Structure formats: C-alpha cells, structure tokens
Amino acid sequence: MNFDKICVLGMGYIGLPTASTFATHGVRVVGVDVNRQVVETLQNGGVHIHEPGLRTLFQAAYKSGNLTISPQPEESDAFIIAVPTPFKEGKKADLEFVVSASEAIVPYLKQGNLVVLESTSPPRTTIDVVAPILEKSGLKAGEDFHLAYSPERVLPGQILRELIDNARVIGGIDKASSDAGRDLYATFVRGEIICTTATTAEMVKLMENTYRDVNIAIANEFSRLAARFGVDVWEAIELANRHPRVEILNPGPGVGGHCISVDPWFFVEAAPDLTPLIATARNVNDAQPQVVVDMLQSALTDLSGKRIAVLGLAYKPDVDDLRESPAVEIASQLAEKGAIVVAYEPYKLDAQFPKFSMAQTLEEALSGADALVLLVAHAPLKNIAPEDVAAKTKARIAIDAVNGWDAAAWQAAGFSLSRLGVGTDHNPLSTTH
Ligand SMILES: NC(=O)c1ccc[n+]([C@@H]2O[C@H](COP(=O)([O-])OP(=O)(O)OC[C@H]3O[C@@H](n4cnc5c(N)ncnc54)[C@H](O)[C@@H]3O)[C@@H](O)[C@H]2O)c1
C-alpha cells in the first residue's frame, strides 16, 4: 500500500517525532493537536518538548513543506493516534483521549484508509473501543478500512534513533491491516517489523512495562532488606549479577513516568482476579517514596521547619518529564510533614508545585538548607563536587536515593551521607577484605 499523506493525532513525545520522521522521509504529514498552545508553538517553528535532536528534525520537516500543523485532521491515506492514555481515580485507564481522537477521524475516514493506534492501551482497546467509533463513519473495519495497533517502545532521550532502529510490532485486526501497517512503517523503520494480531500487540507493550515494574519492585524490596541487614544493596546486586542468569535492576526512590508506573494497572483493571503479583509490585514501587521520606525523617529527627534541598524532580535521569515522578511525590510528602522544601530540577526550571518552591539555581536550593537529597541521577547533579556543595551550604546531612554520589568523597567533604539500600551497620572496609 502507498501512503502519500498521513495524519498524526497528538503532537507529544511520540507523535511529534513520528510525524517529523515521516515528513523527512517524503510523506506529506498533518500533525494534529487539540492543545492550542502546542499548535501555535509548532506553527511558529518552535518545539514545546525536550528531546535531543527533535528541534532540528522538526524544523527540517516543517521547512520542507511536508509537515503542516493543524487543530483538526484532514482526509489522508492513514491516521496514527498517539494521544495520552493516563489513568484516572482508582487506577483505571482513562481512554478519553483515544476516544476523542477516534471520533475526530470519523468525518475524514475513507474507503481503503489505514488507522493505527499507537497509544499504550488496555487489552482489546483497538477492537472494542476504536473500531466501533470509526465504524460510525458507515465504513466497516477490516472490510472498508484497515485498523491496527502498533506499540511505541522508544526510550525518552533516544527517541529519534529508537523510532527508526527498534523492532516494531504491528497488530492488525486482520492480515490486510497488518500488511498495510507494515507498509506504512517501512517508510522509515530499519528494525524488524513483525506482524501479529491487534490484541497481541497491545499485550506485548503492557507485558514489557509490567515486566520492568515487577523487576524494579523486587530490587526495591532487596534495598529494604539490605538496609535492615547492614548490607550495601548496590554492591550485593553487582555481585549477584555476576551470575550468568541473573540481572537484577536498580532500586530507587520509586517508579515514575507515564508508562511503567501506569501500564501495569491496565492489566489489573482488566483482570483483577489474575494479577495479584502485578498489583503487589505496583504497590511496592508506589510505597518507595515513603522509604526516602523516612530516611530524611530519621536523619533530621523532626522534619518540621527543616529546609530541605531536593535535587532532581524528573522521573528518570536527564529528561525533563515530571509525570508520575516519585521525586515530586517525595518533595510533596516532605512539605506535608512540615519541611520547607526547595527543589532544583535543572531540566525544568519553570515547573511549579502547590506544596513546595522551585529554585532557579543549585546555589539557591542549597542556600540555608538543613539537608539535601539526591532523587534523580541527572548528570549535572551526579557530578557536583561535594567540596563545592560544602562551600555553598551549612547542611551536612545528605541523602542519596539513586547511588549517584561517591560515599567516601562526600564523607571526606564533611557530609553525613545516607544511601538508599545501605544499612547503617554497613562497613565499607568489608568490601576490601
Ligand atoms: N513518551 C514516551 O516515552 C512513550 C513511550 C511509549 C509509549 N508511549 C505512549 O504513547 C502515547 C502518547 O504519549 P506521549 O508521551 O506522546 O503523550 P504527550 O502527553 O506528550 O502528548 C500527547 C499529545 O496529544 C494531544 N491530544 C490529546 N487528545 C488529542 C486528540 N483528541 N487529538 C489530537 N491530539 C490530542 C495532547 O494535547 C498532547 O499534546 C501514550 O499512550 C503513551 O503511553 C509514550
């Protein structure tokens, strides 16, 4: 199948790179978003999200004339839906955006078109939610138009490369739909394109993220056990991972982002009777911010009135994405317990929160602090020299929740450093005997 013109609905972290990549590969693309500010920014040649290389790629696509930005779809050969799928109260999947994007396509849907859902979705969404909406056009899915699900598996920070190089799964509601999807993505995908059913493809994406969540949960439990037994969990994991069939992930302050911390709930909602392990893992990871709050509480004795410099708010290193971030949860919990929290997030200086304030510089965060806590291993925060920090603050209590700092160097600079997953009885000399 040939695709001269496509519409991509949702100009976010996934839709914008996808639309730009199609456009720079010679396809005419209409990038659609319902957020007026997003549309205006893009129409003025700007980019509203931080992703390495995206501004250059988008501007090349836009200047070529192949990519236009619009608040609504147009008639096209294919439509790609890349809108958010967050959860709402009670950890239930919020399909509002998938529904509204599908409805927006209906007036423009023609015989022979292809529609692809890329948003991470609960099992059977393509068949049970998207198909019936599109069929309001009077056309029948599988007979008059093709319909497929294709999960996006890119890593923020590396989206542009992974979009092209990763293997891509295409799940059609029938073989012709899978084939059409394969033809579409073959425009730029260099990784293997594997065709399957729509519901299998939906499950593949959810299984990938659930697998990681469950494995992070066990790493977090190991960190709690290590702290209790006077062991350094980071050392123990490194040694355990020397086993040829063991690969324990890193513990940390919790699991965030709008994928791994959200997607497993889609399984739990869809089949609560079958998912006790998945639900427990989610709850273990959701309780991890409390572990960090407890570390600060025990280091400071009383949090009330104490000024705490929170370093890093993003959900993972070197991205500007704060969605579902455990660091934000920790900062909020500290503030709720009476601490005066000043957070420094080098990649998102303009973020605002009701319960705590934001510093524009590291110096501002450190000034007057009683304690500092490293919550994200951003390169600029990991690499700060403890002597420089000591010169900028009277605080001598430091917490490292991400194994980002060299304990000996911080101790030598006069700090009392507590590390997540390291028991107080742990004697670093024991590692050298
Ligand atoms: N960000 C990632 O790294 C990543 C990775 C894999 C999968 N995903 C999945 O991809 C999907 C999109 O995620 P994202 O990070 O790009 O989201 P995002 O929030 O960055 O962007 C989504 C955009 O869609 C727009 N939108 C909402 N409703 C719309 C509609 N009806 N029509 C047109 N536009 C609409 C929003 O205004 C927003 O600009 C989600 O399901 C997510 O789980 C994301």
What's the domain count?
Answer: 2
What is the rounded distance between the termini? 66 Å
Number of strands: 16
CATH superfamily of the largest domain: NAD(P)-binding Rossmann-like Domain
Q: What is the CATH fold-level name of the largest domain?
A: Rossmann fold
User: What does the average pLDDT come to?
Assistant: 96
User: Taking Cα atoms only, what radius of gyration do you get, to the nearest Å?
Assistant: 24 Å
- Indicate the percent of residues in helices: 25-40%
* CATH architecture group name of the largest domain: 3-Layer(aba) Sandwich
Ligands bound here? nicotinamide-adenine-dinucleotide
Task: Walk me through what this model shows.
The chain has 433 residues and is of the alpha/beta class. It has two domains: 5-191, Rossmann fold (3-Layer(aba) Sandwich), CATH 3.40.50.720; 199-433, NAD(P)-binding Rossmann-like Domain (Rossmann fold). The chain is built from 17 helices and 16 strands. Strands 3-2-1-4-7-8-9-10 form an eight-stranded mixed sheet, sandwiched between helices. A six-stranded parallel sheet has the order 13-12-11-14-15-16. Helix 8 packs across helix 11 (276-286) and helix 12 crosses helix 13. The longest helix is centred in the middle third of the chain and has 32 residues, at 198-229. It is elongated and about 70 Å long. 46% of the residues are buried. Nicotinamide-adenine-dinucleotide is lined by residues 9-15, 32-35, 38, 82-85, 97, 100-101, 104, 118-120, 152, 154, 156, 258-259.
